[in-house]
Amino acid sequence: MDKLELIREISRATDTKIVLLVIDGLGGLPDLETGKTELEAANTPNLDALATKGICGLSEPISPGITPGSAPGHLALFGYDPVDCTMGRGVLEAVGIDLDLEMGDIAARGNFCTLDNSGLITDRRAGRIATEKCADLCELLDDMDIDGIRVIVKPVKEHRLVVVFRGDTLSEDITDSDPQQTGVAPENVEARTDAAEKTADVVNKFIKKAQKILAHHHPANMVLLRGFSKKPQLPTMKEIYKLKAVAIASYPMYRGLAKTVGMDVQNTGATIEDELTALRKCFTNYDFFFIHIKGTDSAGEDGDYNRKVAVLEYLDGLLPQLIELKPDVTVITGDHSTPATIMGHSWHPVPVVLYSQWCRPDGVSHFSESACILGGLGHLPATDIMPLAMANALKLNKFGA
Hints:
Blueprint: H1 3-10, E1 18-23, H2 38-41, H3 45-53, E2 55-60, H4 70-77, H5 89-96, E3 106-115, E4 121-123, H6 131-141, E5 144-146, E6 149-157, E7 160-166, H7 197-214, E8 222-229, H8 237-241, E9 245-248, H9 252-260, E10 264-265, H10 272-282, E11 288-293, H11 295-301, H12 305-323, E12 329-333, E13 350-356, H13 369-372, E14 378-381, H14 385-392
Parallel strand pairs: 1-11, 1-12, 2-14, 9-10, 9-11
Antiparallel strand pairs: 2-13, 3-4, 3-7, 3-8, 5-6, 6-7, 12-13
């Protein structure tokens, strides 16, 4: 019996409410000048107060030394084994913008990017072009027919887009064109199996056509594709946990991920205030709330230490709006670390705090990496957070006689 099957057997529906606040890219590393991580440098009295009365630790999104993507990092927080329950970024982006995928569709997450005259990538995000500009460029690429395969191209947000390949005998077993670094050329898409040769050929033909069409649209003069995937079938959170769950997230990928595991998705604006307003509006209607904060991750990926500190402080100032709702269980953590010093995701464990009236406070009084490592939760797999939240909400029956 695996862990999800165990939880399915002993979970029960109750009126208690769980809030899971995910601060994307929460973890950091010491700044070379200050010697402090972003969390250690930030003034966060409300997070510190929660840490003081709650129980803290560090969570491992995947496994020691493994750098997680956003999808596996979140799946682990929802209690799914991210290694067994793989889910491609393309599917998440597509579902997140309410694009219906048909059986056999291959979806890819795309970036508009900037190439120099030598064909090398100078900016993977094309200067984070406006969403309106992204939509205009997607129209230029949408609805191609390549060797009998229909190519659907839709905007997501800023530089991000979704590309769906629709037709017979397509395979997701192909490599990415996005090298995920600058100073190099986009990579040729390769088949990992013989059955994927056709798909790789179609994708490469699309990329070449896209480059010709975008040639004069600097800074967005090329596309990068990654996360080729088909829609998986996963047990829902309602089936496993007996929860009526809702997601509050402004970025489409996280909305798509929530839908894939059976959550409802609440309409919200782009700001943290908008998300907290959405939480208040739906608080009586659900018993599990996933709230996603993106700004910390974006700042970390941009290498902007001060901006990441500022986002943490801004969120902390708004935290009383969540606390005053008095959820029975509050969990605050991240899906992975995004240190500004690395300018990307990293393998470092992530601070986590859990508060309920049933938790056992541990003496930690500051929500940071160096403080949480001494907390009562210890160093735990991220997949253990959901069972702990359920237990503290009195939603799990005893196991065994």
